[in-house]
Amino acid sequence: MTQMHHFPNNTELAKHLTQAIVSNINELLRKQNRVTLAVSGGKSPIELFQTLNQQSLDWTRVHITLVDERVVPTYHEASNTRLVREYLLQNQAASAQFIPLINDNADESYLKNSTQVLAFARQHFCPADIVVLGMGEDGHTASLFPMMSELSNASLTLLYTRPQNAPYERISMSFAAIKQAKWLYLSIAGEKKHATFQKACEKPDLSLPISYLLHDKNINLNVYYHQ
């Protein structure tokens, strides 16, 4: 089931999505020892990260990981690890534990070996309780891009992907891993992405990967949108 939440701007979206995530974390911490939150990278979630890191939580019991990561050194400007450390693992959230997908000691030579890169990510992988996704104008989510042969593989948790129309090779959670989350959110903004989303709502379509989540009756997807 998909539930839509509309907001006038990104500040309101970030505020309400933060409230939902905090509520989820507190509820889970009453039942289990720790909570794992998986977030997406890029510029879109920065305001969410800055709002979330101000919240009073038992952050020592929160693990933060990434939905996907570019195969670049973690100090690289395109690194989602770098983004999360700069904008999310600050203030109150500084005491959360980060679960990496890329080895901090990996240089560009190390990262050319896709087998060892993926092995490191899988070794550290922890199933996420809460997943916050983004979406591209082409309908990709995480690093699950249109027409990828791996899209329907339910046996893998993490994939090594080589996008045809996007820079950098990637490590990405699979749909199987994403669907394990107890709470699943999609944050999108702008008319172009909304048009893509509307098209994906029509039917499952390999050319629009997000459609595989929208049409899965076994999950609840909360969509947070602003123009």
Feature tags:
alpha/beta, Rossmann fold, three-stranded antiparallel beta sheet, 28% helix
Which class of secondary structure composition applies to the elements?
Answer: alpha/beta
Q: What global shape is seen?
A: globular
| Quaternary state of the chains | single chain
Q: Mind describing the biggest β-sheet?
A: 7 strands, parallel
Strand content: 15-25%
Order of helices and strands: EHEHEEHEHEEEHEHHE
Broad CATH class: Alpha Beta
- The total number of structural domains is 1
Low-confidence stretches: none
The counted number of beta strands is 10
> What is the helix tally?
7
Radius of gyration: 16 Å
What does this molecule look like?
By secondary structure, the protein is of the alpha/beta class. The protein has one domain: 3-Layer(aba) Sandwich (Rossmann fold). Helices cover 28% and strands 20% of the residues. Strands 1-10-9-6-2-3-5 form a 7-stranded parallel β-sheet, with helices on both faces. A 3-stranded antiparallel β-sheet has the order 4-8-7. α2 links the parallel β2 and β3 (62-66). α1 crosses α2 (46-52). 38% of the residues are buried.
